[in-house]
Amino acid sequence: MGVQASNWALYLLGAPRLEYNGHRVEMDTRKALALLAYLALAGSQSRESLAVLFWPENDQASARGALRRTLSTLHKATQGMLLDAGRERVQLRADAPLWIDVQGFRQLLTTAANPASPVDSSDQQQLLQQAVDLYAGDFLQGFTLRDSPAFDDWQYFQTDSLRRELAGALEKLALGYSQHRQDDAAILAVRRWLALDELQEEAHRLLMKLFAWTGQRGAALRQYRECVRILEQELGVPPLPETTRLYQAILENQLPARPAAEKSPAPEAPAIPSVPESYPLTGREAELGQLSNIYWTGAGHGSLVLIAGEPGIGKTRQAEEILRIAQQAGAQTLTARCYEGETQLAYGPLLEGLPGILSQPGSLEALGKIPAHWLSEAMRLVPILGELRPDLPQPQPAEGPGAQSRFFEGIRQFLIGLLTGARSGRPPGILFLDDLHWADSATLDLLVYIVRRLRGQALLVLATRRNPSGASDTRISNLMAETGRSGYGYSISLERLSPEAVFQLTEKLPEPLPEEICKRLFRETEGLPLLVTAYLDALQKGGLPQTGTVWEMPASVRNVLRNRLPAPDEPSWQLLTTAAVIGRAFDFETLRQASGRGEMETVSGLETLLALGLVQEDGSEHPGEIQYRFTHEKLLNLVIEEISLARLRLLHHRVAEALISGPARRESGHFAARIAQHYHTAGQDSLAAEYFYQAGDYERQLFANQEALAHYQTALALSPSQPAALYEAIGDLQALSGDYPAAIRNYETAAALLSLPELPTLEHKLGNIH
């Protein structure tokens, strides 16, 4: 709901503010804004009650005097257009041109609840979505009055009431989206519902069903485990019987199909293994031509290209084609992949991709041309630079004005130098970020910094991203809009293959398929490239009949993947399960140590997995270290599901120990978050707390404050050995972000745990905030 009909707008959901004609109105005191918020929702009030509410420690005369001064401030700030302040009572003017977001939120919910509207109507869904979008944050988020506990109590009850209303709206919204087969939107609504109250088993069950109905069985099973963990940790109780029965049905593939809905869009086809190299890129000539033209004509001056589309549409394949063309022409390239589930791992894609570029031809020569003070900043993220350039000075302290900008500029100079300066006369370099929708916030911050300084550089920044949804990070969209207006940002949207493209692909097979089979192939796959190749694989191997009317999907995506797995009694299966626990990418030495296999057994098992197409060799994180990667995320998820819970815990413990005993560079903090996660999953909470603490310290040095805060808070929840230090560290980050009430609470808690000689520093921090 907009505010076009009103000159004045009062925003109380989230950080409070008053706007006039779209411009923020500043007030001299916090009490003035608090008074306006109170009158907006509580209605007409007597002067006496307002004086007691806001100045409880003052005597009657001074309290009424303070109220008069505050009303004068408010009257002046609002140009006399909003307040009706009589001798005895104060209220907002009945004709005040004021729009209030809380009232707008509740009005949308009231309209959506009109009995005249069907429960699953699109009109109601639209109203509910508008209401949910309007809820920008909790009531008066981050706002408090130190000397008015009664106001704080009123604020608390308003917050609680509004959160309950939001939870109800999200529940209805999720159910409606589910009935309309809008599964991505339904999942987003349920996740936000759970973020409000993670103890809602009904929300956990709905999310499990949505995952299962959309082919994400692994995610459904993990959601049940998350529900069990939360209930045990918070209440000490097991899930309800219906939750357990739902889990059992999903585990045994016996969950009933979702009831048919009228006019429902077809559910999104599940992602399946990567397109085999034997299938040529088909049906993408126009898109490839556009991308090639941008690269050869625009990247010499600095360009950003975003390839977007639905899962399985071939975004990565399209990007890899231009990478192959550029590499054949002699260009330097860097690939950084973002993985689902690693959005809390600061700079995760770059940690994996940056060191590998140093092994490319000409990189060491280019490294020598980059100023040492920039390389010393980049060394924070790429420690191996200290070995390659022993003359580098130590980076400046990671605090104070400009520290983060120096760090970002160091990484930018490092990338520009290696991708564009290895040798003269070569094509522009390419920085490729795959699956950008899974990037952590620190990586996005760095990307925005680099792209805004891209003009004039012989560099193409190339990224892939799923089609944006309601919860997509708006920074990506804003960045594309900004660069598009400036003339160096381009978007390429991939659509499904046409019937002609599918037929063209089948004509390139060793034995072309009959026309009727080609038509059937398109009808069954609807032109989704990865699904097309899955059917073609099955047809080539005789897994699907070429005659008759029954032509089922090749035993579902799950069975296609399972058929490629080694037998459970083979050594390669043990290596595969260990690799899945390590994560999407893994190195040889960690795999060998965690699996308990000898060197030759590990080599032999990996050769089997490579031959089966389950893993592939990838760019190394460190020269001399062999790196591997699962060919698809779904393969990793499937393997995890096949591991018993007891063995899963054992493997996570072994992986943590292997990471700790690995090369010395892992002690610098790069691997702390991963080690902590493995220990946590293994049930070793005290050790997990120690490494979550280390991860927070490390990311704090890299200005990844959101990730650092999350890791500190996780460490605190696991009963650490140094709770006071963690409370203080959490308070530091909250103070830095401007959340002063939360910072004060954590500082006070830390102070309560410290002895008298340890208090001065903490008291000084409290004094600064106050």
Keywords:
770 residues, alpha/beta, five-stranded parallel sheet, 34 helices, 8% strand, globular
Describe this protein's structure:
Helix content is 54%, strand content 8%. The protein is an alpha/beta fold. It has a five-stranded parallel β-sheet with strand order 9-10-11-8-12, sandwiched between helices. Strand 1 (8-11) and strand 2 (17-20) form a beta hairpin. The longest helix is centred in the N-terminal third of the chain and has 31 residues, at 149-179. The two termini are 37 Å apart.
Quick overview of this protein structure:
The protein has 770 residues and is of the alpha/beta class. 54% of the residues lie in helices and 8% in strands. Helix 25 packs across helix 28 (645-660), helix 28 (645-660) packs antiparallel against helix 29 and helix 32 (723-737) runs antiparallel to helix 33.
Per-chain topology:
Elements: E1 8-11, E2 17-20, E3 23-24, H1 30-42, E4 45-46, H2 47-54, H3 60-77, E5 83-85, E6 89-92, E7 98-100, H4 101-112, H5 122-134, H6 149-179, H7 183-196, H8 201-213, H9 217-234, H10 241-251, H11 285-298, E8 303-309, H12 315-328, E9 333-337, H13 348-353, H14 363-367, H15 372-378, H16 385-388, H17 403-420, E10 429-434, H18 441-451, E11 459-466, H19 474-486, E12 489-493, H20 499-507, H21 515-525, H22 529-540, H23 556-562, H24 571-582, E13 585-587, H25 588-595, H26 599-611, E14 615-618, E15 627-630, H27 633-641, H28 645-660, H29 672-681, H30 685-701, H31 705-717, H32 723-737, H33 740-753, H34 760-769
Parallel strand pairs: 1-7, 8-11, 8-12, 9-10, 10-11
Antiparallel strand pairs: 1-2, 2-3, 4-6, 5-6, 13-15, 14-15
